[in-house]
């Protein structure tokens, strides 16, 4: 009797079930040995079953935590699925983590085993483990891996076993990226990730995702990519194409022709800057056509409505300008999703006006992580879209966004007090996730205005939103990154990273932003600083600025700015 989709109790049950249906269908495309390679669903299932048998033979038992440290490659989801299939718990971690980062996660999670991509990462894990060592450490580029995926195994038997597991069983521990404070281990059961899938299915079916490709370049260790790129999109029939890196992304758009791509706001900022730089190299006529395409595109989005002559002009510009832009992105994009941080409406408007389907979404690791997303046919770019199917949302008295549904985590690993703060029961005993974000619901669309804990209180008692001011600064083409300060001070100051080639124009950009701010929000002084990066610890692996670290490292500079006010 066929197993009913939607009734899958666990992620491995879903993936192995799909492999049985789609045995010969391509699942992964990846670059290796100088060319693109493919791995089918059937090959994936066989390797999952073999690795699961190998891990069992090496003593990995249900409930054990296994660190998974790898760049995006097929061996990551194979390992992920195999770990979960035997009832163990995956702990995905970033390849950019230091030995100290890994040591903290090993200690906090109690993981006694790890799978890494290569010997270099294995050495870092060994250093992190210290004298205690690990019960199992294997690398994907070693002979041990080849032996593991050649272990005799019965795929059908493993699938049957996975069908008997509980949706409430813990699937993974996702450690928050830690923009402030110590990372916490978010306990996500299979139920949470499957609930995310059930919310995505209507969108996938309406847009026709099945049979198309997804270009994956956000780290699979991040909660969004782990859920969406690792399980959800494959399960609706998409081929997952692993990018060779952010520096290749532009060429891969044209080469792959993806239907779905997920990005962070920083990438959109970089792409807009490059497109505007290319515009400057064009003839005056081409520049006028480009600008007019944007102007009319924004009119279609925001009004007032185009007149007859303007509609004809807009249609001509669609052929002359927007079609060329879409072709540079592969010509097949159905959804270009932005997440991880706020996407400025002016920035998304730029791409939407040029005919690219940019959709802002919202989520948290604690919620599986997808909570809401705009839709191509209902896209209000000043919002993060309507909540996904199955997600209940309400706004607390202090403006905090609360979430209820199967997507919500079980809690924080080993932290009952933090769990009690984040998950609070209502009068009916239903647990609501307190997101820490401040927002509102307008006609069913969720709007996020700030982080509850991130307001700056100036010396005069005024409350200033750093997210708003920093977002406006980074929306200016002359500014790549920005952090503001002013807690307990008479005014707001800023640390600004100029966009390449625009160092001399930063003041004009700051002046433009100040023109859109209230008096208490305006930037009184600023200083330019070196770019923030993942390598120096000022950015998270998903390109979020670690504000506290930036400010701590620039204390003298910030104090000097305040003193000069």
Descriptive notes:
It is a single chain. The chain is α/β, with parallel strands linked by helices and 565 residues long. Helix content is 39%, strand content 22%. The protein is built from 19 helices and 25 strands. The termini are far apart. Keywords: ATP-binding, Ligase, Nucleotide-binding. It comes from Plastoroseomonas arctica. InterPro entries: AMP-bd_C_sf, AMP-dep_synth/lig_dom, ANL_N_sf. It holds the Pfam family AMP-binding.
List keywords for this structure.
alpha/beta; GMP Synthetase, Chain A, domain 3; 5-stranded antiparallel β-sheet; 19 helices; 25 strands; globular; disordered N terminus
Tally of helical runs: 19
Shape: globular
What is the SS-derived class? alpha/beta
* Helix-residue proportion: 25-40%
CATH architecture of the domain at 11-165 and 208-263: 3-Layer(aba) Sandwich
Could you describe the largest sheet, including whether it forms a barrel? 8 strands, mixed
Main sheet strand line-up: 2-1-10-9-11-12-13-14
Count of strand segments? 25
Output the CATH class name of the domain at 11-165 and 208-263.
Answer: Alpha Beta
Intertermini distance: 74 Å
CATH fold naming of the domain at 11-165 and 208-263: Rossmann fold
Name the poorly predicted regions. Answer: 1-5
**Average residue-wise pLDDT:** 93
> What's the gyration radius in Å?
24 Å
Regarding quaternary structure, what we see is: single chain
* The CATH homologous superfamily of the domain at 11-165 and 208-263: ANL, N-terminal domain
Beta-strand portion reads 15-25%
């Amino acid at each position: 009797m066929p197993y009913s989709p939607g009734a899958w109790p666990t992620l491995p049950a879903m993936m192995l079930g799909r492999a049985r249906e789609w045995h010969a269908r391509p699942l992964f495309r990846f670059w290796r040995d100088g060319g693109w390679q493919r791995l089918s669903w059937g090959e994936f299932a066989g390797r999952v079953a073999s690795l699961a048998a190998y891990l069992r033979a090496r003593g990995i038992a249900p409930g054990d935590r296994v660190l998974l440290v790898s760049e995006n490659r097929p061996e990551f989801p194979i390992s992920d699925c195999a770990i979960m299939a035997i009832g163990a718990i995956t702990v995905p971690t970033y390849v950019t983590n230091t030995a100290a980062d890994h040591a903290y996660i090993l200690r906090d999670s109690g993981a006694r085993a790890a799978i890494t991509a290569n010997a270099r990462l294995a050495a870092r894990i060994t250093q992190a483990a210290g004298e205690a060592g690990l019960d199992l450490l294997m690398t994907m580029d070693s002979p041990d891996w080849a032996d593991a995926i050649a272990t005799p195994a019965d795929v059908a038997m493993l699938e049957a076993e996975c069908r008997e597991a509980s949706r409430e069983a813990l699937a993974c521990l996702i450690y928050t990226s830690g923009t402030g404070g110590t990372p916490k281990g978010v306990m996500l059961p299979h139920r949470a990730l499957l609930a995310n899938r059930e919310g995505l299915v209507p969108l996938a079916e309406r847009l026709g995702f099945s049979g198309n490709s997804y270009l994956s370049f956000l780290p699979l260790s991040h909660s969004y990519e782990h859920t969406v790129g690792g399980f959800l999109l494959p399960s609706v029939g998409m081929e997952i194409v692993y990018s060779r890196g952010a520096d290749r992304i532009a060429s891969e758009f044209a080469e792959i022709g993806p239907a779905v791509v997920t990005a962070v706001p920083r990438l959109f900022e970089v792409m807009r800057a490059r497109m505007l730089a290319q515009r400057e190299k064009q003839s005056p006529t081409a520049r006028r056509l480009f600008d007019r395409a944007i102007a009319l595109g924004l009119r279609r989005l925001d009004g007032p409505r185009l007149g007859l002559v303007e509609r004809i002009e807009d249609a001509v510009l669609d052929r002359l300008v927007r079609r060329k832009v879409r072709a540079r992105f592969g010509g097949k994009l159905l959804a270009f999703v932005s997440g991880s941080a706020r996407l400025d409406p002016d920035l998304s408007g730029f791409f939407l006006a040029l005919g690219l389907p940019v959709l802002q979404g919202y989520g948290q690791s604690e919620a599986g992580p997808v909570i809401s997303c705009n839709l191509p046919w209902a896209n209000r770019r000043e919002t993060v879209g309507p909540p996904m199917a199955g997600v209940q949302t309400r706004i607390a008295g202090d403006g905090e966004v609360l979430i209820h549904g199967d997507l919500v985590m079980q809690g924080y690993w080993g932290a009952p007090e933090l769990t009690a703060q984040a998950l609070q029961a209502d009068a009916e005993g239903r647990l609501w996730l307190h997101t820490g974000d401040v927002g509102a619901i307008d006609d069913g669309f969720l709007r996020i205005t700030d982080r509850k804990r991130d307001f700056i209180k100036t010396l005069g008692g005024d409350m200033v939103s750093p997210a708003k001011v920093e977002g406006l600064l980074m929306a200016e083409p002359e500014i790549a990154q920005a952090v503001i300060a002013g807690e307990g001070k008479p005014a707001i100051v800023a640390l600004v990273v100029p966009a390449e080639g625009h160092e001399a124009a930063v003041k004009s950009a700051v002046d433009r932003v100040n023109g859109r701010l209230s008096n208490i929000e305006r930037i009184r002084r600023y200083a330019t600083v070196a770019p923030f990066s993942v390598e120096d610890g000022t950015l998270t692996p998903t390109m979020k600025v670690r504000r506290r670290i930036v400010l701590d490292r620039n204390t003298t500079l910030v104090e000097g700015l305040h003193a000069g006010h």
